[in-house]
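Please check this one:

***
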Amino acid sequence: MHTAVNDPEHGFCRDCLTPQPNAAPRCARCGSPRLVRHPELYRLHLAHIDCDAFYAAVEKRDNPALKDRPVIVGGGKRGVVSTACYIARINGVRSAMPMFKALEACPEAVVIKPDMEKYARVGREVRAMMQDLTPLVEPISIDEAFLDLAGTERLHGMPPAIVLARFEKRLEREIGITASVGLSYCKFLAKVASDFRKPRGFSVIGEAEAHDFLAMQPVTLIWGVGKAFAATLERDGIRTIGQLQKMEQAELMRRYGSMGNRLYHLSRGRDERVVSADRDTKSVSAETTFDQDFGKMDDLVPVLRALSEKVSARLKKAGLAGRTVVLKLKSNDFRIRTRNRQLEDPTRLADRIFSTGLELLRREIDGTKYRLLGIGVSDLCDAGKADPPDLVDTRSHKRALAEGAIDALRDKFGRGAVETGYTFGRGHRGKPARPGEDDEPDVRHPWERI
């Protein structure tokens, strides 16, 4: 059944929030064309908010001279694009694109190395603003989250749709970045809606229209259907969600297992997942992409040590520890290797993370050259369970005490106050040494900043 999405009895202006009494293309009060109309607009309460080109938006906010220029946030020529502003995207730049390809597509782009501490700080400000709307905020990443505003109309004195529009205005006014909102009755379609009209979008998908809307969409719209699985469906002659809607659940599960069950339900707009504010962190990791390929221990070990220290610092700050150490490598032909080892006890110590990662790394030194190295820990738990005394390795307690002393000095005097022999003279935390930064300014190593 066709849904009259421009029903004149429903709608408001996103700029002045004035209700719209007719189907005119512009606001009756302020003249803005940014109107929202939908017959289910005031009944829906589940939203997905996604900040627009977040890293690039923060950089443009902090440097107004970049406002009308294409901006790419990412590594050097050997790195990849983390975020591209919409001007750069018009020129063909995409997230995760190798930097050399991005610069071929948009040679006039301004390339900025990521400042993750700054982005995390802004992300926390955005999150706090979301939590002013509802306690049910489920973060998906640093710049996006699901929100459930059911039952908040009495608190705010207005329906969720208008609350979300006010949030967009407040975000622009107080933080200086923009976001896009998707409003629907389930998480799947709220996420789909938020991608519709970026940047500064506000899209609605109601329950009455969901089946017909989905029927026209490609299968890749469904969460979990990536390139490989889409190719499998293509070989089976399935290209659209409408084709999935005509198939029985048993047939889909016979062909595709548990993924078939997901295809059956999501293709029909059925998603029973709830917004959970208690999502736990699953892992803590750090990685870096090199300016040139490396395959020798002498080059890789200092970077592994620096990354291990960074992971350890994050764990300690969050009050977490992990039982499984994971090593990640990407070869010069872009193949990814991951190796892991489970420890007897959880750890948050840089020394244990590094030594375990070192054992894993030695096994991968086989002549292959690598363009990326990463280390992380998973199977997280409370830090109170971490690093009990080792009756076999009696020196481990002394190393733990020494690391605690190093942490105290770094907290007081900065991260560069103390370095281990693995990284000393190599550029603090793995970044290329610059004159005045290290005792040996002539020592240069071509790995990216960690």
Summary: The chain has three domains: 40-205, 217-267, 283-430. Confidence is low (pLDDT under 50) at residues 1-6, 427-450. The CA atoms of residues 313 and 350 lie 8 Å apart. The first helix runs from residue 54 to 62.
